[in-house]
Amino acid sequence: MQYHVDGELVPEDDATVSVLDRGFMYGDAAFETLRVYGGVPFEWDAHRDRLQYTAETLGFADAVPADLRERVDETLAANDIEEAYCKVSVSRGVQPGTLDPQPQVDPTVVVIVKPLPRGGRDGDPVWDGPATVQTVRTRQVPSEAVPADIKSHNYLNGILGRLELRRSAGDGDPADECVLRDTDGNIAEGATSNLFFVTENGLRTPSAELDLLAGVTRDIVIELARDEGFPVETGAYSLDALRNADEAFLTNSTWEIRPIGTVDGIDVGAGPMTKLLQRLYDERVETAHY
Amino acid sequence: MQYHVDGELVPEDDATVSVLDRGFMYGDAAFETLRVYGGVPFEWDAHRDRLQYTAETLGFADAVPADLRERVDETLAANDIEEAYCKVSVSRGVQPGTLDPQPQVDPTVVVIVKPLPRGGRDGDPVWDGPATVQTVRTRQVPSEAVPADIKSHNYLNGILGRLELRRSAGDGDPADECVLRDTDGNIAEGATSNLFFVTENGLRTPSAELDLLAGVTRDIVIELARDEGFPVETGAYSLDALRNADEAFLTNSTWEIRPIGTVDGIDVGAGPMTKLLQRLYDERVETAHY
Question: Which residue among A163, A274, B43, B133 sits deepest, i.e. has the most Cβ atoms within 10 Å of its Cβ?
Answer without folding.
Answer: B133
